[in-house]
Amino acid sequence: xxxxxxxxxxxxxxxxxxxxxxxxxxxxxxxxxxxxxxxxxxxxxxxxxxxxxxxxxxxxxxxxxxxxxxxxxxxxxxxxxxxxxxxxxxxxxxxxxxxxxxxxxxxxxxxxxxxxxxxxxxxxxxxxxxxxxxxxxxxxxxxxxxxxxxxxxxxxxxxxxxxxxxxxxxxxxxxxxxxxxxxxxxxxxxxxxxxxxxxxxxxxxxxxxxxxxxxxxxxxxxxxxxxxxxxxxxxxxxxxxxxxxxxxxxxxxxxxxxxxxxxxxxxxxxxxxxxxxxx
Length: 279
Hints:
By secondary structure, this protein is mainly alpha-helical.
């Protein structure tokens, strides 16, 4: 079920925070329930994906240790659990919000298409990975009545997710044995991925900077611009880890292990809360 991956689902709270509804009890409750349901949905997807990728995972130096690949979890049990998780998430999600359920279904269909086919197509594969992040943000927005959520945040999320996806491919290309189980890496080269990283990094910082002074719901003092250095450092630090330290195959591992990334995220989050709710 990969609990570490649930950290990505925190993006569902983006609509709540950036629309200044974090202190609205009803909106907070709906978003928290939506977060739990999306964790259930993604867990079902991970079980299904691991079943589909079983043979490839058994050849991977790290993925072979996963419960299904290692033989610790029987395939029939995984499939039954996956079906229960997916159906429960979609049905309960519909009761919460039909639009939220539709976005959950879109995530499921897109994920299956990715696992069966799209993950083997260079460029398209990282664009699909970015789409998963944007769907999470959209799912969170669908749970509340937004009044001031800026479209710039969708654009920033897209470039941010592309940065993570391309960085992941760059790290996999450097990893020993990575190319043996991920066919799409044959369509990439180190210099090409480095160029893509530079492009999406520049666009991500640019779009976030534009958001901080052009979104209609921000303080007139433009205090939100003070959060730009945290965003820049976070991107630079991650790029350093990918290109110098040769890490980044699993972004969630960096999130839970790199103290500087953690500190930067905490300071960025606190600065946003102070600007939005106490200024």
